[in-house]
User: What shape does this take?
Amino acid sequence: MKATVKWADGAMFVGESGSGHTVVMDGPEDLGGRNLAARPMEMLLLGTGGCSIYDVLTMLKKSRQQVLDCRVELDAQRADAVPAVFTQINMHFVVTGVGLKESHVKRAVELSAEKYCSASIMLGAAGVEITHSYEIVEFAPAI
Assistant: This one.
C-alpha cells in the first residue's frame, strides 16, 4: 500500500491514496491552519472506525441479518504530553434493523475487535486501550 501527502498551505495537506483517492487535512487556526478539514489524528480515528464498521456489516450480512442502518461512535482520549498519542478509544456500534439477533451483533463486534480490524488491532498492539460496546435498535415502521 502506498500513499502521498503533499503540503498545500499553512497547516493544510492533501493526501492521495495508492488507489487514486484524495483527502484534505487541515489544522486549527492557532497552529497555522484554516480549520477547513479534519485533522490528521481525526483521520486516523475515522479510518479505525471505518475499518471496524466494514467488518461488522460484512459479518452481519453474511449471517443474513436485516441491517437497515449502522454507525460506530468513537470516543478517543489522547495523552497530555507530546507525542499526544491515543491512550483510549471506545467504539460504540449502533445497529438498526429488523429482527436482529443479539448473538450475531455481539459476535460481529468481537470478531472485528479480536481478529479482523487491522487498524484497531494495530493501535491496541501499540498500547492504546480499545473498548467496544453495541446497542441494537429494532426498526418499527411508522403507521
